[in-house]
Structures are given as C-alpha cells and as structure tokens.
Amino acid sequence: MSDMTAHDIEREALDASSDGIDMNAPATVLERREVYRGAIFHVEDMTIGLRTRDGGTVSIRRQVLRHAPCVVMLVHDVHADRYLVEREYRAGSDLFAYGLPAGLMDDGETVREAALRELAEETGIAPESDDTMRIDPVGDYYSSEGMTDELAHIMVIHLDRWRRVPRHFDADEHVESTWVDWDTLLDTHVTASNSIIAIQHETIRRLTGRVA
C-alpha cells in the first residue's frame, strides 16, 4: 500500500507535466534586450528556455516590466482606532483611486526604513518614537508576477502615539490623506490588490481579537 497522502498526490499532479516540461528545473534566460526605459521602470523583451524531461529546451517569449520593490502600509491609530486612507490619480486604472500609503524603496533601504520614510513624506505622520509603534508584517507579494518583478512588502503599522512632520511630494505627486474609522475603511472602494491584502489581514486580526 502506498504511503502517499492526499497532499503528496496533489503535489505530484502539480509537478507532473502533460507536455514534457520539467517544472522542477530552473528556467534559463536565452536572450534579453531592453525595449523601453522610463523614470520609474524599464521593460525587457526576453526569450526564456524551459527544460524538458528528456533534456531538451523549449523557448518562450515574455516581456517583463522591471520595477523597484515597494512598501504598502495600513496605518492604525490605536488610541483612536482609526486608519489612514489616501486618494490620488492612478494612470493604470484612470481613477482618482482610494488606497493606502505606499511607495518605492530606495537603493540600500530596509523595508522598515522605506515604510517610515514614505509614510512621513506622503501623509506627514511619524511615530513619536520606536517604542510607540509596532509593525505587523503581512507578507511579500508580487503585484502581477506574469508581467512584472515588482515585489510589494505589505504591513500593518500600529501607532500608539504619533506626531506631525512636513510632507514631501515629488513635483508631479498629488496625494490627499485622512484618518477614517474601521467601518468607513471597509466601505471605501479600494481597488489596489496590495491594499486589499493589508485590509484583509487586519480584518482577521480584529475578528480573532488579537491585540494590536
């Protein structure tokens, strides 16, 4: 009798390939060329080699948008039980979209450093001190792994006490932010998937009664 569990059988089915591709072998970049470079991202046209189980190679072509990693923060004022919400124009959705504080990481920054910098720059909010805040890591997720390498570091920041600091926007950046209560946050039409992940994480915390 086989000792394989249902989990093992399901995993074996995922690892098996109907067309001979070895899904446990790393892919190889056969050719790449940059076809666009902008201020925020660049695009590569790539030919990728997938190894087959008989030792051969199958070539596929993909375009990849290369993008700096980013931070996404659901910010919680613990004392007032309120959350920070932003609104700004987003070209991808062509909306003045509601969302959470977020931004790109600079070279050499840690996730924590980037999150606190972006929070201060965009909203003018900073923790009063290190011991008046707690960061609840949600996870690191690709925004759209089929087309971009942008990795979003998502977290919930719980502030016991905070202070106002000057905001610093880029020349073409126009962001509004305000504190809202939990019900208002849930009623707000947030369309960015990374923001939704953070909100769902906090929903679970509130439902299970975990301390912020």
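Above is the first protein from milestone M3; the second protein from the same milestone is given next.
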Amino acid sequence: MNGTTPSLANHVAFLNGRGELPMLEILTRWSRAELYLHGGQVTHFQKEGEPPLLFTSQCSRFESGAPIRGGIPVVFPWFGRKDDRHPSHGFARLRDWTLSELATGLDGSLRLVLRMPEVEESPDCPACAVESELVIRDSLTLEIRVTNQSDRPFPFELCLHTYLAVGDVRQIWITGLQDTEYLDAAAGRHRVRDAEPQLRIRGEVDRIYVNTARPVEVHDPVLGRTIRVEKTGSASTVIWNPGPERARTMPDLGDDEYLQMVCVESGNVADNALTLPPGGTTSMQITLTSRPGT
C-alpha cells in the first residue's frame, strides 16, 4: 500500500462477465477481485499497485458446460480423468453456484459464501453439499467445505487448482517442497523424492506432492515479488505447468501463455484422498499473500 490510504471503498457489483456469464466485481481498500458463479470460481485477484496474483487465459471458454482456464477452479469429487464418461477434474467447476452470504468484516475485508447445487444420490457420487467461503482484503483466503448427506461412506478427492501469475515461468523458483515425495504424473505417476531445495520449471511439470502440509512460495525475479500459498486441511500439493509442446495442443490456452503461469494446487488427492462417513463434514483452506522481493 506504500503507506498511503487507498481511494477505493468496499464495493460488490453483479455484472455480465465474459461470455455473458454472471460475475461479481469486488473492490476492497486493498484489492480487486472477480468471481464467476459458473464454477464458483475466482478468476482475478490483484492488490493495489501490484500485477494480478492470479492468471486467467485470454483463450478460456467462458460458457456453460465448459471449465474456465485460470483463477482457482474447484476440483471435486475426483482429480484428473476418471474415464471417458466423466468430465476431467469432476463436475464442481462446471456447475453454476449461488451466492448465499455477503458481509463486511470489522477490518474492512469482504466475506462471501457460495454454494454449489446439492448433489443428489447416484452410483457415481453420494448425496452431498459443497460450499466455499472467501475473505478478500490484501490477501485472498478461500475455504471449501464438503458434507456427506448420504447414509454411506463417501470417498472423494478435492483440490483448489490455483493458477498463479508470474513474469516468466523459466525464471521463477519454488520452495517448500524439499524432502517430499511426489508422483510424477507426466511420467506415469512414478514416485520420486524431491531432494532439491528449489524447484525450477524446465518444460512440462506435473507433480503430485503427497503428505505435505507446508506452505509453498513462488519466487519471481521478473515481477520482483514472492507469492506465498498457505493451507490447512490439505495434505497434497500439485505443481503444474504444461510447457511449450503441450500448451500448443490446448485450445483454451494461448501457445505462449504457459510462460505467464504456474499452478500451485492445494488439496487431498491420490494418496491423500478422503473418505467422509455418513453425515460427516470436512474443510480445506488456502491463503494467498505476496511480498516484494524474492
């Protein structure tokens, strides 16, 4: 904030966003955010005087039935591809959520609660309820809560597929994952222990780090900042960038846009998948912050 008092007051506007999809424009004393009801998805978060923290592709399809490429998609109730009959990364990011609560905190933050349409009992998924709670100020906090409304155990995966904006992915480094095992999804989920203090992105990276609750930091010398991803209730961290060759095969990502993003995803997937008992509830939370320097 550079020690000055910002001119923006708290403000929420309901607008037609890209593709005429309903969108909320959110302004606080510290930041600006955009939230689409489609997928219940934050697509933009930017602190005053800084570049955006989140990346969203200019080629993304903003239309019903298609996922939005960027921001923070909610991956539920499975991670990755289940089979040809089911959408990749589940159905939560394809549904239209509703805004159920909106309030201003005593500190000037804005709090929003969204709900996904309740899931009816089916062979693929027990009856369940999912809601998200966002708190927006000079940081962005997002909590997801899942309740099993059925009378049978509910095994599932959950992940916040966070796309972070970077100046040049080839120059960043990522810390917080040393001495953690990961499944190399780009090489048949081969299991590896990461012995390096820093992760550098060299081509396609698709790693599912398991049994780790530590914060992860993305150090960006081009934009002159460090983004920190803190989490609770999450035992998995996924690092993903498609690299140049795969990016060229993705119609909703520009050929060179992979250079401006890296995904640091917090969740419970693979080895850390969850099972909720009948009537059980679980929650997971992330907080995104940034600071100058690397």
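Note on the second protein: The chain has one domain: 11-292.
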